[in-house]
Amino acid sequence: MLYDEFLVMPMREELTQVGFEEMRTPEEVDEILNNRTGTVLVVINSVCGCAAGMARPGVALALRNNVLPDHITTVFAGQDNEATIRVREYIVGEMPSSPSMALLQDGKLLWFLPRFEIEGRAAEQVAESVMDAFNEYCTGESVS
């Protein structure tokens, strides 16, 4: 079921306003995840309360870290269905989950934060998990 674009727009903008690039088609997903050099953070966005209260604020806080991925991207579950399905094909070995976050390099999964590790936690705790992944897998300060 697709959500009304008008209702979803503010939820999209929470991420795009802090620099996330949207992937709305499977082709965009493949282009970014296969052809970008370096690490790529993908946030699978959602309309649920844990996305609003924990995931989006948490990942925005994590962008204050000194070490960042090379690229930050997002898809919207329940809105960009084909793109979300394609992203999930890259998240090998993990169950579909939204919201969720994945860190990839060269199309390969390095780290994954599923919904059950987001819901019930404070945004600051989510940010800490994300920053730990940045510090472990990323090498630079450039987010493009």
Q: Just name the CATH architecture.
A: 3-Layer(aba) Sandwich
Look at the structure and give the mean pLDDT: 94
Q: What is the strand arrangement across the widest sheet?
A: 1-3-2-4-5
Q: What is the name of the CATH topology?
A: Glutaredoxin
Helical proportion, percent range:
40-55%
Task: Determine the N-to-C terminus distance.
Answer: 32 Å
Reading off the top of the CATH hierarchy, the class is best stated as Alpha Beta
How many helical elements?
5
How would you describe the oligomerization state of the chains in this entry? Answer: single chain
Write the layout of secondary structure elements.
Layout: H1 5-16, E1 21-22, H2 26-35, E2 39-45, H3 49-62, E3 71-76, H4 81-90, E4 100-105, E5 108-113, H5 123-137
Parallel strand pairs: 1-3, 2-3
Antiparallel strand pairs: 2-4, 4-5
Question: How would you describe this protein?
Answer:
The chain has 144 residues and is of the alpha/beta class. It is built from five helices and five strands. A five-stranded mixed sheet has the order 1-3-2-4-5, sandwiched between helices. The model has no long low-confidence stretch (mean pLDDT 94).
Features:
single chain, 144 residues, alpha/beta, Glutaredoxin, 5-stranded mixed β-sheet, 5 helices, 42% helix, 19% strand, globular
Short description:
By secondary structure, this protein is an alpha/beta fold.
